UniProtKB/TrEMBL annotation:
MF annotations from Gene Ontology: cobalamin binding; cobalt ion binding; methionine synthase activity
Protein name per UniProt: Dimethylamine corrinoid protein 3
SUPFAM superfamilies, sorted: Cobalamin (vitamin B12)-binding domain, Methionine synthase domain
Family, per entry: Belongs to the methylamine corrinoid protein family.
InterPro entries linked to this entry: Cbl-bd_cap, Cobalamin-bd, Cobalamin-bd_sf, Corrinoid_p, Met_Synthase/Corrinoid, Meth_synthase_dom
Length: 216
């Protein structure tokens, strides 16, 4: 039987090959071999997507390749999601998180993974989807009495809009009772500090750990 490392590398290669069927096969193999689905997603699929992004940037790959790779990755995540949900031993209610990808930005894969992992950790997730107007985060947070407003931004041009979440929550008088969390590839701890967001998390595991610490 293949080792965990071999399975993860196979998963990475399958995304790099844009091979949806192979990605699904590896996902099934990982489940059978007892590999933690989160590790396959982070160290296999996501690592491949980062390479795809680099090649897209340097002009060796084009948009259809990026689309094919992201579809392959999503197919793999779909196979793994029920397995991830089974792993959730915790049914403890921890708080409500409104999450979405910021206005102008349609990247959703990372946000979906963060949403799934937080759900598994016991948070109530209200997923607004992608290209979410700032007003919608604020309105939903108010309506659902949310504890956390989390936004994903995958582009340097859209992360700027995360600032408006801070501003509009303040204007609505909600900011003092809500934690804000930001993430996405170009987002950093420095950026979070700069805009006054409470939490920055690098990936889904980090997001879960940081929110669990705040909502034990
Ligand atoms: C896949 C992809 C796409 C897919 C998205 C499919 C989908 N349904 O999401 C498609 C093909 C649609 C796409 C479109 C575009 N893309 Co694109 N895309 C990517 C790519 C290759 C990978 C992103 C990805 O899914 N990674 C895998 C996931 C798992 O990782 P992740 O998103 O980073 O998420 C993790 C963490 O960041 C974090 N996280 C994410 N969100 C959140 C939220 C919170 C709250 C927290 C705490 C953490 C967190 O946790 C996640 C799990 O670990 C990136 C390259 C890259 N390196 O990011 C480019 C990239 C983001 N795209 C880019 C561009 C330019 C575009 C387009 C403008 C291309 C075009 N010419 O049309 C359009 C954008 C249109 C728009 N208005 O949004 C650029 C952005 C450059 C910039 N300005 O900053 C990048 C960086 C590529 C590049 N190097 O040039 N893209």
């Amino acid at each position: 039987m293949a080792t965990k490392e071999e399975i993860i590398q196979k998963g990475k290669a399958a995304v790099l090959d844009f091979d949806e069927d192979a990605v699904k096969e590896v996902a099934k193999e990982a489940i059978d071999a007892g590999v933690n689905p989160a590790e396959l997603i982070e160290d296999g699929f996501t690592a491949a997507m980062n390479e795809i992004g680099d090649q897209f940037e340097s002009g060796t790959l084009f948009l259809p390749h990026v689309i094919a790779a992201s579809e392959a990755m999503s197919a793999g995540v779909e196979v793994l999601t029920p397995e991830l949900e089974k792993l959730s031993a915790e049914s403890k209610a921890r708080g409500t998180v409104v999450i979405g990808t910021i206005e102008g930005d349609i990247h959703s894969i990372g946000k979906d993974i963060v949403a799934t992992m937080l759900k598994i950790a016991g948070f109530d997730i209200i997923d607004l989807g992608r290209d979410v107007p700032v007003k919608d985060y604020v309105d939903k947070a108010k309506e659902k009495n949310a504890d956390v407003v989390a936004s994903s931004a995958l582009m340097t041009t859209t992360m700027i809009t995360q600032t408006q979440i801070e501003e509009q929550l303040k204007e609505a008088g909600l900011r003092d009772n809500i934690k804000t969390m930001v993430g996405g590839a170009p987002v950093t701890q420095d950026w979070a500090n700069k805009i006054g967001a409470d939490i920055y998390a690098e990936n889904s595991g980090d997001a879960v750990n940081k929110l669990k610490a705040l909502f034990p």
